[in-house]
Amino acid sequence: MLISDIPRFQSTLAADGYVLERNIDRDILLGIAASLGPVKTDPRHPQQMRLIKPQTMADAEPNTLSSRYGMDAFPFHTDAAHWQIPPNYVLLYCVEVGSGNRPTYLIDSKSFWLTQMELSLLCNAVWRSGHLNPFLCTVTCPSDSGFSIRYDPGCMSPRSPRGVKAANLLETKLNNAQCRKIEWQSGDLLIINNWRVLHARGPAERADADRVIARILIGGSNGCLGF
To answer: Apex CA 98: angle with CA 95 and CA 104, to 5°?
Structure first.
């Protein structure tokens, strides 16, 4: 893939909510990311491209998915849902597949086919997000394409009876939705519309601390109140 190919996969990203490209040179990842928006970093990890490996619960940082699930699978979630405005896009790059052949799963929220009553519930039910600096939010927000979604059961919790009802609705939608399985190869590039497509880490065939995924966060904000 060349930088000149970017308009092609930007079109796919807009249509499908994600794009998967194979045999990508790691050296052009930041250039690709910058074509989609400003590269952002988490205060705990200031590097623009962070290398992520499966960890045990004992080794993981507090208040992370690894601290809750360890080497097991992760649930479907939005990356950095604890940010005031989550990243627009998440770029994932397979550095090493790992000995566990662990997949990633995707679910497009457009496949939920929400009724107006369901969408109203999700747009209005109040949730709490974050740990050190928690704030109130909703799991969906109207957008030009229909709605945007923010969901991570690890850092978000419903704060009202309507919120509990919204949580049950989301889990029902996720359980009934078709998902795309990504079986990684070294050099694969996966870009996800983080406001539309939820992703999950699948189970491994065996312990796979040798699995390495590079992650770049694009857009969003840690400091401005928003969706």
So the answer is: 80
Q: 3-state DSSP call for residue 186?
A: coil
Give the CA distances from residue 40 to residues 36, 88, 126, 183, 217, in Å, rounded to whole numbers and listed in that order. 12, 10, 27, 27, 5
Q: What residue has token string 């004992």?
A: 58
State whether residue 100 is helix, strand or coil.
Answer: coil
Q: How far apart are CA 2 and CA 185, in angstroms?
A: 19
Tell me how far apart the alpha carbons of residues 24 and 98 are, in angstroms, rounded to a whole number.
Answer: 18
Residues 6+ away with beta carbon under 8 Å from 128? 134, 135, 136, 137, 156, 157, 159
Q: Tokens standing for 29?
A: 């990842």
Does residue 87 contact residue 218 with C-beta atoms inside 8 Å?
A: yes
pLDDT tens-digit map of 176-216? 999 999 999 999 999 999 999 999 999 999 999 999 999 99
Closest C-alpha to 42, from 34, 31, 50:
50
Dist. CA 225–CA 141, nearest whole Å: 13
pLDDT, tens digit, for every residue of 46-56? 899 999 999 99
Output the CA–CA distances (angstroms, integers) from residue 90 to 18, 189, 193, 215, 217, in the order listed. Answer: 9, 11, 7, 7, 5
What's phi and psi for 154, nearest 5 deg?
A: -80, -30
CA angle 34, 39, 43 (to 5 degrees): 170
Residue with tokens 């809750």: 68
Residue 93 structure tokens: 């790059």
Q: What is the pTM for the complete model shown?
A: 0.93
- Listed in sequence order, the residues at least 6 apart from 111 whose beta carbon sits closer than 8 Å to its beta carbon are 177, 178
